[in-house]
């Protein structure tokens, strides 16, 4: 992504999170999208989850720009959401993205085709990163980074073993 595309995403995200309806609307849409989603979230503190999601959206923006902290955050999400822990199936990310785009459309007064494209590109990076790690032990790729991953020069993406995250 270009610097100007990252700025477009950041500006839109800032407008969205300034509207208290954004996160609430996202979870309303996402939970309504499937019985499987509702089941996965039945014991989730949605107030806390909204804060986690807000932070994660900014971290994906950092990760797509090659920031090590952002990439480490995606690794933690991949581990937590993977087959070994929460088992958030890769197919659910399509529902997640559509709920996110719709809530963005409804809360960003400047939303247009360019903003939608940049949101899809940014979130697509994070979603692809997580999906590729779904069955890998520990949420990391066993043979180093995949296409588009940012390498630290050690044959695998920048990772930190501690912590969990969630989107």
Features:
single chain; 167 residues; mainly alpha; 61% helix; 0% strand; globular; disordered C terminus
Rg, alpha carbons: 15 Å
> pLDDT under 50 segments (min length 5)?
141-167
Shape: globular
**Overall average pLDDT:** 84
Task: Provide the CATH top-level class.
Answer: Mainly Alpha
How many strand elements? 0
* N- and C-termini, Cα separation: 21 Å
Q: Helix and strand string, N-terminal first?
A: HHHHHHH
Estimate the helix proportion, in percent. Answer: 55-70%
Please state the structural category: mainly alpha
Strand content: under 5%
Biggest pleated-sheet summary:
none
Structure characterization notes:
The protein is mostly helical. It is 61% helix and 0% strand. It has a single domain, classed as Globin-like (Orthogonal Bundle). Helix 1 packs antiparallel against helix 4, helix 4 packs across helix 7 and helix 6 runs antiparallel to helix 7. The longest helix is centred in the first third of the chain and has 19 residues. The C terminus is likely disordered.
